[in-house]
Amino acid sequence: MATVKGHLAEHHKRSAVFDVNVASECEKLRKAFENLETHADSGDELKKAFGDAKASIGRLGQLFSGHAAYHRDAGQNVEKSADVDDLDKLVPTQISGIVDPSRAPSSGRLVPRSGQPTPADMPKVDMQFEHLVKVDD
Question: I want to staple 15 with a disulfide (CB 3.0 to 4.6 A). Which of 30, 71, 125, 129 is the partner?
């Protein structure tokens, strides 16, 4: 599992198996509640409780079955996809520069580096007057 594709395929395979196993156990539990409901007295409050538990665990089992189907489908899609040999290839490598927060577009969210002044601390000076307030280091 040296590739991203291999990792995702293994994840979806294991998750699908887990979900199928949980759905199977939910079905066993549903049948047990059904049996208890059948053998309870008609007017008994336990009969209603067993019926509610049977319905609830049945829905839970269906959810796990649906999730298992999702993982099976996702695993098949991973098998069809292109492979990436190395996770380093997913790191952005073509950074063209660092943006000055005072010139950044207002639609972007700025994340200052540690120790860097926040955009609120920086003066708002028009570019044509910037040379008047610039401090040389």
Answer: 71
